[in-house]
Amino acid sequence: MQSIRLPFYLPGLLSALFAFSAPQALAQTQPLHLDEAVMTALQIDDPSVVLHREQAKALDDQSVAQSQLPDPQISVRMQNLPTSFDPDQEAMTQYQTMVRQSFPAGRTLALRHDQKQAEARGANLAASLRQLEIIRDTRLAWLEIFYWTRARERILKSRDAVTDLLQSSAASYGSGSGSSQSVWRTDLELSLLDDRLIEAERKLDMAKADLARAIGATEASRPVPPNLPPLKHPEMIDALEAGLINHPVILAADSQIEAQDHAVDLARQHYKPDWSVEAGYGVRGGNRDDFISAGITLDIPLFTAKRQDRSLSAARHERQAARLSREARLLDLKQLLQRSHAAWQRLAERKALYQKAVIIKAEQTAQASALAYQNGLADFPELIRARLAELDAQLTLDRLSIDHLQAQAHLLFFEGRLP
């Protein structure tokens, strides 16, 4: 039999590939903690953040460009040339060079600069707001993944228990000591658990897709740790509400109002004349004296009713609209804050109730039903109902714990600070 000779470099290549892929494979099995997910999301240059920063840079450049004087104008011409085209025929013929510089009215240049700077600050604040939204959305998605991972585990555990009951009821029915109703009822509950398992898988996949938007599909596919992490405790509701005026949403609205203030001042500058200065030098040639000339040109805004007055009125309306927009945003933030705080408080109460009473009673009921069934004091459907009620209670407690932390994540968003 002819032996196969491998290339001399193949073992080394395989070793290098293994050494490169082994750490990556190990990293994929490491649990993804909530804080790690948040930091990863912030380290990624999300396009929705970068675009606002690019807009801010563009506005900053515009603030410089639009605050400069117009380019000077130069004109070269031959003046008073006779129809014979002989430049030496008439004494008035001259070669003339003129330079002209225009100046916008009043404080136009400074106001243009200030207006664009205000808009640039608004764009940077929009980037900060988007980062806060990414942090909030990352926390919400991670918590959803945690819930549906645990829900899937609980459903699988309950399914195994119901499968054992199905086998037991089928054996009893085969021996003549059980009923077909018990078998069919158990099989039905098993199918319903399969449906709940599929739904849990669907919700888990959706939550991972949401998290992948922030940190990438590879990181989002990592498992979550077995225990819920603590979240920073939010400030008191009064402090949160008072601090809303410093939230990026409101600060961005303030920047827009400032920009509109400058727009109103710019409109007022149109009542002042634009002006320009010019100077010229005329060469006549020969023994004739050269000429110099200088002058000032003014725009005279006489008919202001349909131009300057309307422009100023429009700028004032835009400013008022910006102020009303800020008021509306502040009211919306207060509404969302109060709703989130109410949810956070009531979910904590429900969570405590389930921990202190409902879960304990559900476990006791399931144990009592199992004991009664063994002693012939309870029927099989009652045993199944008790088992499923215990599962529902556990899933509800898990859901309340997650909802409570998600409401807390919303409250942390209203603080308006990056970690």
TrEMBL record:
Keywords: Cell outer membrane, Coiled coil, Membrane, Signal, Transmembrane, Transmembrane beta strand, Transport. GO terms for cellular component: cell outer membrane; efflux pump complex. InterPro entries: OMP_efflux, TolC-like. It is found in: Cell outer membrane. The keyword NAD does not apply. SUPFAM superfamilies: Outer membrane efflux proteins (OEP). Its main location: membrane. Residues 190-217 form a coiled coil. GO terms for molecular function: efflux transmembrane transporter activity; porin activity. Residues 1-27 form the signal peptide. It holds the Pfam family OEP. The keyword DNA damage does not apply. Belongs to the outer membrane factor (OMF) (TC 1.B.17) family. This is Copper transporter. The lineage of its organism: Bacteria, Pseudomonadati, Pseudomonadota, Alphaproteobacteria, Iodidimonadales.
